[in-house]
Write a structure and sequence with these properties.
Blueprint (H helix, E strand, L loop, with lengths): L3 H16 L6 H7 L14 H26 L2 H19 L1 H10 L5 H28 L9 H13 L13 H15 L10
Helix pairs in contact: 1-2, 1-3, 1-5, 3-4, 3-5, 3-6, 4-5, 4-6, 4-7, 4-8, 6-7
Length: 197
């Protein structure tokens, strides 16, 4: 059995995913854990802090994994593939917390929302730089389309996996990664002559 804080966070993810953060009450979260309504305040100052914990955890983990994967990859194409694979895996494997994180961050107060927006911007800008490097190296051909537009389209495509994917789909997560890598490479005008790395 987990700690009360972990139990509360897990229950919150389920409820926020099913009915949205705004519609979820503290009483519903604590009841799902078999705790009294006041128990939440032993671990979180408010429902918003609990929501922030879920959202920040998802975003911080994604950023850490992206940075690590990119560092291990060679060249713009390898880095591009590595980032796409991380995005696909995280949003498929942790679809509920990912869906909550991407759908509910606008519910946070100004300062907490700014922290999340900053991470999202760093991730987007990192991916844009990889695409721009790939265009300079000749790995990618954007044909006049801005790297920003292409990056947004690819990341949005990956993020929305959390809206529909679940275990038991015809594709495994690894197969989904391969399919999305091929789609993403086509979107940057990369050669289809290689299998996904």
């Amino acid at each position: 059995m987990g700690s009360p804080a972990r139990d509360l966070t897990a229950a919150a993810v389920e409820l926020f995913y099913e009915q949205g953060a705004q519609a979820t009450t503290v009483r519903e979260i604590t009841k799902a854990c078999g705790l009294t309504a006041g128990a939440l305040y032993n671990h979180f100052t408010s429902k918003e802090e609990l929501l922030f914990t879920v959202i920040m955890g998802s975003h911080a983990t994604l950023e850490q994994l992206v940075v690590a994967a990119q560092a291990e990859a060679a060249g713009p194409r390898g880095q591009f593939v590595a980032i796409v694979r991380v995005y696909v895996e995280q949003h498929a494997q942790h679809r509920k917390s990912s869906r909550v994180a991407n759908r509910e961050y606008g519910q946070l107060g100004k300062d907490r929302r700014a922290e999340i927006v900053s991470i999202r911007r760093r991730l987007r800008d990192r991916f844009i730089r990889v695409i721009e490097a790939g265009e300079r190296s000749g790995d990618f051909r954007l044909d006049g389309v801005s790297a920003t537009i292409v990056a947004r389209a690819i990341l949005d495509m990956c993020v929305h996996i959390s809206a529909w994917f679940h275990e038991g789909q015809p594709l495994s997560i690894a197969e989904l990664q391969d399919r999305y890598v091929r789609l993403a490479l086509r979107m940057v005008g990369a050669s289809d002559g290689h299998r996904p790395e």
